[in-house]
Design goal:
Length: 289
């Protein structure tokens, strides 16, 4: 029979559960906003194989939503989430309240030197988003104090910024990035997919297919600019509206003009599918390949 997962609803309850583990056991941590799917479960499974204790937090962080209606509509499915976590052999679910994470309206004092990392792509279309993400991840890392932090490649810009934060603040946690889990159609799994209307969802694989095409076109010698404009045109179909399709350096997230042998290149895209905003990405080229 599966071991019952422990639920901590406050920082105090979590620390009680972890008291005997600190300094003795490898603690793996997966931060999420809930409405869990197989993508999240893959992060949990990776933590379970690498660590002695796995914690998953479920916290819909208000400070990273720049659109109040997106925050309102964000799916909240705690009891289904607990079942998924139990099946993935997660040990503890940490589901704090906003008051617990931001006591008495705490203001972020976090100062990071991120250069352009938080200004491009998502930063351009969701102003303030990464300030909220960095704030909550720092707060959660301070609370959980994990040995390893597991995040998904699905949010490429997010994990890049968090890696910078870990380096800059000398946080003693190792970031492990896990591959993107996709539905059979190729659509990247996302908590927002449940809000896609059926007739739109059936065409939402256009994101993945365009990324695959971009990889092929890059191999054939097309320039990033040509590929970007081809992709943006392709997204302009009924019900869909692209925000960006960028081919960038995977470390700096800055545009790539001419591809060199040593370049690490990733394509990142954001597209509205009806009233649901989807993001996806693909590594187009590793250095030297
Ligand atoms: P979220 O609940 O959307 O904030 O995501 C929590 C974590 O799960 C983040 O590190 C995401 O990058 C990761 N994640 C979300 N979707 C996927 C996916 N399809 N495959 C792998 N990881 C994912």
């Amino acid at each position: 029979m599966a071991k019952r997962i422990k639920i901590a609803k406050t920082v105090g309850e979590l620390h009680k559960l972890l008291a005997s583990a600190y300094g003795k056991k490898k603690i793996g941590y997966v931060p999420t906003m809930g409405a869990l799917h197989d993508g999240h479960a893959s992060l949990i499974k990776s933590s379970v194989t690498k660590c002695d204790i796995t914690i998953c937090s479920i916290f819909v962080n208000p400070t990273q939503f720049n659109d109040a209606s997106d925050l309102d509509k964000y799916p909240r499915t705690l009891s289904a989430d607990v079942k998924i976590l139990e099946a993935a052999k997660c040990d503890i679910v940490f589901a704090p309240s906003v008051k617990d994470i931001y006591p008495k309206g705490t203001k972020s004092k976090l100062k990071l030197r991120l250069g352009k990392l938080d200004k491009v792509m998502e930063g351009e279309f969701r102003p303030g988003h990464f300030k909220g993400v960095a704030q909550v991840v720092k707060r959660l890392l301070d609370i959980v104090k994990p040995t390893m932090l597991f995040m998904g490649q699905k949010d490429f810009q997010q994990f890049t910024i968090i890696q910078h934060m870990i380096n800059q603040l000398n946080i003693p946690t190792k970031l492990v990035v896990c591959p993107i889990k996709r539905e059979q159609s190729g659509l990247a799994m996302s908590s927002r997919n449940v809000r896609l209307e059926k007739h739109i969802k059936s065409r939402a694989d256009i994101l993945h297919h365009t990324l695959l095409e971009a990889r092929e076109l890059l191999n054939l010698g097309y320039t990033p600019k040509q590929i970007e404009s081809y992709a943006m045109k392709g997204f302009k179909i009924t019900d869909f509206k692209p925000e960006y399709f960028r081919i960038v350096n995977g470390n700096t997230l800055l545009p790539v003009k001419n591809v060199k042998k040593e370049d690490y290149i990733v394509a990142c895209a954001a597209v509205w599918a009806g009233d649901v905003r989807l993001i996806d990405n693909m590594i187009l080229k590793h250095p030297q390949s």
